[in-house]
Write a structure and sequence with these properties.
alpha+beta, 3 domains, 3 helices, 8 strands, elongated
Length: about 140
């Protein structure tokens, strides 16, 4: 059995000479070689690798100021979408997941430690971020 690469080299060499030859013999290739007439035929003969199809996808969305900081989903069919309405969402294969609702503003802040004090100093300080765009605390109880 000859390697497809060696056969392809023989076909290309013979084609470069401009001789319409359907049989090539010599030390490099000693078997009959069918010269492809089109790219489709070349692919059928194994000369051209088939393209790799990537049909799967994954989408991830950051959910600001919530206990669940990100949501994501995956699809094996390549049907992935994301949007920002209703606090943000991801959708794969028709199944939509929304970000949790953003907690209401509480107090006034200019730093995270202020929110830790405003939100009762209980638990993890990361649960009480300061929303710098609104200068208020988002207390996640």
């Amino acid at each position: 059995m000859r390697s497809p690469f060696r056969i392809l080299l023989c076909v290309l060499f013979i084609s470069a000479l401009g001789t319409p030859l359907l049989r090539a013999e010599g030390p490099a290739c000693s078997s009959s070689v069918a010269v492809p007439e089109s790219w489709a035929q070349a692919a059928d003969l194994g000369f051209i690798p088939e393209p790799i199809s990537r049909s799967s996808c994954t989408v991830t969305l950051h959910c600001p100021f919530t206990l669940q900081p990100t949501i994501s989903c995956s699809s094996s069919t390549g049907d992935c979408h994301t949007g920002q309405d209703n606090n943000g969402w991801v959708e794969c294969d028709g199944a939509r997941t929304y970000c949790p609702p953003t907690p209401p503003c509480t107090g006034t802040c200019y730093s995270g430690p202020q929110c830790y004090a405003i939100c009762s100093e209980v638990g993890d300080p990361m649960l009480y971020p300061c929303d710098f765009s609104a200068h208020c605390c988002r207390c996640n109880y």
